[in-house]
Records
---
Amino acid sequence: MTKEIITKTQGNLLTALCVGFNLFLVSGDTNAKESFETLPETKDYSFAEAAIESITGDVYCDKAAENWQNLSYKNIFSKGWGKPWVSPPNGGGGAPRQGWINAYDGVFYRLSIATFGWQHGNNGDSYAGNLISYTPLNQRLEVITEIPMASSTGANGQTNFGDFRITPRIILSESKNTTQSFNLTFRTPTGNSINGNGVASITPQYQFWHNSWKGLVVRGGAGFTIPYAGELSKTGVRSSFDANLAIGYYFTPHDAVPFGDMVWYVSTNLSQPIDNRAATSNTFVSLTPGFRSHVGDNWYLLGALEVPVTSNSSYDYQVMGGIMKVY
């Protein structure tokens, strides 16, 4: 039964990657066809000016919306770098570009979210709390910072600071229906190996987001985690191929608080070790049903339950939640 689940999940993830690749192939044509829809202002900003406007400006007003523009692979080095980021429009089906817990982003945001995760494990319960901020600098570049406020492992009961992460992100292409991005996460060994931290790694990832029919959103991507320094032997961290596919549906409009932008989704995550640091290389697969809701004044409540479907997992399930402020 487990092998069948893994096989089907891997097949679905491969299908998602094929969809992402097809989006790559058609992105140039899509952006060309839609280029007439937007007429952004012609003023070019310096890097600092674009960053300041992206961080402090009113990026959600109608005037700012007029400055959103299609971006493509063809002009990746020439377009968008000199323009402040503005909130992109809803997708072709009307769904907003928003983030979900335990699913790849694909798109840019300007927000901060406090997250909490509690794992029920085989060797005791564990928990972690993080403060994550998304800071756009222009229409092509964004930086994510993840501050691990607390990390506790059930086996020893110690609570420590975790490993700090910083992620530069680049928009590869963006049209009304689809966004594609490239992330490069740098993990720094600021935590304690007792909690599985104290590791330095890099994680390159391709991500996508798509909406063309009503409230249905498909997002995901793939990449690699490559640890290169720190407490590698103590933590047992592995180099791995990682993939994600998430599908959700938006049921309510933004202003229907406290249930505005109500989305229910299921996210599938896969991790396959690709090094020889251990005798076995078991595939990890999990399913995460979750929700997100606008409760008012651009505050959001998020929740999810991750359930591993492979027998090699170190935990039975993980409950996750988040409080988000979009600004």
Note: Residues 2-34 form the longest helix (33 residues).
---
Amino acid sequence: MRPAATWSTVRILVIGALLLLGAIGLVAAVISTTGQATALDVRVDAASLCIAFALSMLYWLLGGLAWWAVLRSITWTGKHLSLPDALSVFFIGNLGRYVPGKVWYAVGRTQLAGMRGADASTVAASLVLEIALIGTSGGVMIALGAPFLALGNATPPWVGLLAVSMGLVALHPRVFGALLRSIERFTHRTQGPGFYFPEPPTYPVALSLLALYVGVWLVAALALFATLRAVSPVSAEQLPAVAGAWGIAFLSGYVAPLLPAGLGVREATASALLSGIVPLPIAVATAVLFRLLLTVAEALCLAPFLFGLRAMIPARNTAEES
């Protein structure tokens, strides 16, 4: 069928362009942070660095697992993605984060999930819910960690509490469902009817997902703390402050417009906040080294799934053309 074959070709071209640009951005990020890290005059504890890297790998895998749980929580009108397929979509689609702008990872995930038979509206709803969960769980980290920061007056705990309160309201099915309906109506006005969101998860399920995302944040905070210990002897009492610094730094980079993966903003914010715990040069070294660990860990998690994508595209294309 020609229309299906044409759409498959367009989809492959879109994904191919995003993969190429994302891969270039990922490689550029690795090269940039590697150069900065090697230029730092610090002594690194190998054991702590290995722990930080293992936790960074765990952080990415848990992030993919959490998004799969979000997908499973939404009423499906199409095919369920298996965990391996969801992880493949998650990691390959996330290459769009390294393309300037904040929407390309969503485009990549939606297109890749569609190639696996998933419903586009369900994937889109999961991405909206994921943003709410990331923001709310990040607010939890800020609320818990900001009081322990030496620069706590610059970022008071009420900022995190406000984010948590707004997130808890936004996650309620009535509020989140109203948001989806609003997006749905806008889509109908601009692109015509045919795009309908599924029902949002129940509130207990949404709160369970929030707890899962808080766990993902805690693993990342532990990874940052291990990175800090790799370059400076800090006590476990500083862990809450490090967790708060990570919450503020990550969300600062997350909302930064145009910057790929928040590059630069996250490191500058983390350096400023960590400088209340250790000297500024050590704080800068920690922020840069942590970016490098996360980027390399993400690349290693991504690599196995690229082979699956290459094998899948011809089979899918052939099936649609027949």
Note: The chain has a mean pLDDT of 79.
